[in-house]
Amino acid sequence: MTPAPSPYGVLGHLDVPLGLGLLRLATEGRPSEEDATAVIHVALDRGIRLLDTADSYCLTDREAHYGERLVRKALDAWSGPRDDVRVITKAGLTRPKGRWVPDGSRDHLRRTVEGSLKALGVSRIFMLLLHVTDPKTPLEESLAALAELQREGLVEHLGLSNTSIAEVRQAQRHFPVRAIQEELSVLDRGSAARGLFELAKQMGIPFLAHRPLGGHAKVDNLLKNRAIKPIAARHSVTSQEAALAALLDLGPPVLPLFGATRRESVESCLRALRIPFGARDRADLSKTSFAPTADVLASVAPPVIPAGLRKLEPGEGPGDAPEVVVIMGIQGAGKSSEVARYTAKGYARLNRDELGGTLDGVVKKLGELLSSGQTRVVLDNTYGTRASRYAVLRMAHAHGVPVRCRYLATPINEAYANVVLRVLERYGKLLGPEDMKALGKEDPNLPPPQALSRWAANFEAPHVDEGFSVVEEIPFARRVDPLFTGKGLLLDVDGTLRTTKSGEIYPRDPDDVELLPGRRAALERWVNDGYTLFFVSNQSGISKGSVTEEAVMAAFSRTIELLGLPVAEVVYCPHPAFPVGCFCRKPLPGLGISLIQRHKLAREHLVMVGDMESDREFARALGAKYMTAEELFPGK
Question: Which of 223, 242, 282, 394 could potentially form a cystine with 231 if both were Cys, beta carbons 3.0 to 4.6 Å apart?
Fold first, then answer.
């Protein structure tokens, strides 16, 4: 007889539908290794066969893979059926100085997997989840790297953690997604409301619910939760046990991953399995629904393009036949010039900045236009997520009109540059945070830097599986002005060219300036080769009041005097280091763009020299070559 399929997918049949998460056994406030091992053994002895860990479950990067090594030691010392235990680990987060910093780059993921194999003592990882999406790395790169590791046989199954429906759909184009891990509890039902639980059910894969009690910092909130209190009292159990029973009542594919640092906590979580959760308990939870809205449910289901829609071809148009065109991309991508092609052919334009209101208002206006017979419409909002695009697709399809997506694939650094150029053109100078904020109220095309970084962090690439008839990706190409031929050497100052006699990090007066050795001789060779010198510096001390602007300028003048070489211009950012509200603070490219424009510099002849990672990123944002101070001034 063929065994019934497991309700938990590749995890198999689990007699105890719970997993032990090792986060609290490996991070801040953790118990001793001996006590942690005892907690794991208690869980295994009570029938738990799922352990959840990560390479970043540690205190700092110096002890990366601590949680995985803990799993290995616990299993090596356990006398039970080790082959029945499923270990899930994760990659994509780092712990520099105890902070949580994403890194989804191809090289990091490969190094992590190699380290995890060694830490776990296995030749192949049973299941690896991408821990988070890294805003600095294209998700496609991370997914492709994971798929490559799987093809090489280093990983058996792959899944996603802290994710979205769009990212799951995107991942499915690279590998079979075998698990989704998200926070889910009575206190936080966001992942269910966003449809991820429903998606896992449809896909037949486990939904690994971490923080099932709301997380260590919030667990006491269960004691006063109005829905949980009567359930706990009725069954004579703790609020935590009642809350866990509420999750278990959802049934497969939910698998709560509880954390514990004491054996008593393990025993308490296991008692939740024996609570006879019934109709009265569910009635108490009626306002604590785990069900998504009808709109979310519709967006979870793979979209079906209505029959009879006109077929769209890539690259055609603008034309005379009905179509809705969604032009999307990051702020500063150049959507306005693209949309002009369509409005010139009679397409109606819908843009929230012009209409005011919300994206829902734009969709309503789209419906009105289509109903009135205006069946050629172009929309040019940013539309960075599947959710923001879904209503447009549904409205167009309801009126029998196909939808074309034109995605301007403008990298964020080029978008930064475009916004800076727009600022220089309109206002003649770079703007500080207060000016940006004030002018942005009237100028919708003046987004702050944070708006672009948020868009990039939340971006979900468009795909035909959303319901688009065609998705056309337009690569970014910057037009090169043939008059821009100058050679420029951009120089960071403090730590690169000069130090202080007093030992302070920055000079507060010109007499404290001391030139670092070998600077003049090395730079003179660049000047003789036709390069113009520029100083580019962050001077946030001005905004903090620790140094005056006059003192900063006097120190720059003294540096030039000691250098004895012509410096064409000194530019600096006087604004706060955090939060960044201007485009002139390195690594943002404002200062460099302004120099390029004023001095007609060619990017292929532009070199940035510095001593910090922000200098390297600044060069990357400009499209300039980067050299460290050690490289330009070797042995000095």
Answer: 242
197 or 305, which is more confident: 197
The crossing angle, in degrees rounded to 10, of helices 590-599 and 613-622 is: 50
- Any residues with CB less than 8 A from the CB of 6 and at least 6 apart, and which? 12, 13, 14
Respond yes or no on whether the N-terminal peptide bond of residue 475 is cis (omega within 30° of 0).
no
Residues 6+ apart with CB under 8 A from 128: 88, 89, 90, 91, 113, 116, 146, 149, 155, 157, 158, 159
Q: What is the DSSP string of 170-201?
A: HHHTTS-EEEEEEE--SS--HHHHTTHHHHHH
Fold: same for 316-475 and 486-632:
yes
CA–CA dist 584, 403 (Å, integer):
39
Specify the fold of 9-286: TIM Barrel (3.20.20)
Tally the residues of the chain. 636
The pLDDT, as a whole number, for residue 1 is: 45
Angle at 440 between CA 439 and CA 446, to 5 degrees: 110
Helix (H, G, I), strand (E, B) or coil at 585: coil
Residue 609 phi/psi, 5-degree rounding, is -120, 130
| CA angle 154–93–216, rounded 5-degree value | 115
User: Does residue 76 carry a pLDDT above 50?
Assistant: yes
pTM value surpassing 0.70: no
- Residues 176-187, mean pLDDT to the nearest whole number: 95
Residue 358 has, within 13 A of its CA and on its CB side, a CA count of 4
Query: What confidence tens digit (pLDDT) does each residue in 460-478 have?
Result: 788 888 899 999 999 999 8
Q: Which SS3 state, helix, strand or coil, does residue 142 take?
A: helix
| pLDDT score recorded for residue 170 | 83
Counting residues of the chain whose pLDDT is more than 70, the rounded percentage is 97
Domain range summary for the chain, segments of one domain joined by +: 9-286, 316-475, 486-632
Strand intervals (E) in 200-264:
207-210, 254-259
Taking 70 as the threshold, does the pLDDT of residue 3 lie above it? no
Q: Are 520 and 555 in contact (CB under 8 A)?
A: no
Domain 486-632 sits in CATH 3.40.50.1000? yes
Distance, CA of 464 to CA of 404 (rounded, Å): 9
CATH (residue range 316-475): 3.40.50.300
pLDDT tens-digit readout, 366-386? 999 999 999 999 999 888 887
3-state secondary structure of 426: helix
pLDDT at 4 > cutoff 80: no
Compute the Cα dihedral for 298, 299, 303, 305 and give only its sign: positive
**Strands 601-610, 207-210: pairing kind:** unpaired
pLDDT digits (tens, 9 = 90+) for 482-534: 999 999 999 999 999 999 999 998 999 999 999 999 999 999 999 999 999 99
Rg of the chain, C-alpha, whole Å: 29
